Amino acid sequence: MPDLSAFPITRRWPAQQPEQIQLYSLPTPNGVKVSIMLEETALPYEPHLIDIGQNETWSAEYLSLNPNGKIPAIIDPNGPEGKPIALFESGAILVYLAEKTGQFLPSAPAARYEALQWVFFQMAAIGPMFGQLGFFHKFAGREYEDKRPLQRYVAESKRLLGVLEGRLADRSWLMGETYTIADIATLGWVRNLVGSYEAGDLVGYADLQHVPRWLEAGLARPAVQRGLQSPARA
Q1: Crossing angle of helices 181-194/90-101, nearest 10°?
Q2: Environment class of 76 (CB within 10 Å of its CB; exposed 0-12, middle 13-18, buried 19+)
Q3: What is the DSSP letter of 233?
């Protein structure tokens, strides 16, 4: 049985199944990337709900795993050379799990880097811009009298959707006919933009053809649906 006692986070969120991957997360657009990937790969994992509303990511135990204080993070008791490994940053975790399982990331070098560029596109552009739009449109930022920040993020989010629309115009998934971590990284953000952020009208989502088709196909995957609910909210 693996011993995870060297990881302080396990003192606050004890591992009931220490032989499984330990997931510390919340079903946010960033969090569901990893839970969807775990469901898609069928890797056994134990989810731990981290309540960001209660500032649990800023606890000493959580910061010992991710000094940046963000979800998600994992501990894999069976990491490289059979030793436990702790990881944070959703993009890094996706790449790690893809390489661990040999799934959802092309093995051919050119295709691999092509997929990774779309993962990084999500990390660098889709996530930050959509997240800011959600803040200024749906959450606390909506009370700001100055609407220029909202207008900026609406315009940039609309532009980024156009990039996705063009990419998907002649292919089922971001990498063609093969579903990859590029799709897994992006699905939750587009879902939130038009769902909980209620920003579809602002960004002209109804005028798009290929992004909605891609999102519908992604959400139809059973593993995606399971991942969107993990860890289960209380």
Answers
A1: 140
A2: buried
A3: P
Pairing of strands 73-76, 85-88: antiparallel
What is the model's pTM? 0.97
**Contact call for residues 95 and 104 (beta carbons, < 8 A):** no
- Mind giving me the DSSP string for 143-199? G-S--HHHHHHHHHHHHHHHHHHHHGGG-SBTTBSS--HHHHHHHHHHHHHHTTT--
Beta strand ranges found along the chain (DSSP E): 21-25, 45-49, 73-76, 85-88
* Residue with the two structure tokens 């490289």: 80
Residue listed under structure tokens 């890094």 = 92
**Residue 111, burial from CB neighbour count under 10 angstroms (0-12, 13-18, 19+):** middle
Tokens of 180: 């990859």
Q: pLDDT 10s per residue in the chain (234 long)?
A: 788 999 999 999 999 999 999 999 999 999 999 999 999 999 999 999 999 999 999 999 999 999 999 999 999 999 999 999 999 999 999 999 999 999 999 999 999 999 999 999 999 999 999 999 999 999 999 999 999 999 999 999 999 999 999 999 999 999 999 999 999 999 999 999 999 999 999 999 999 999 999 999 999 999 999 999 999 997
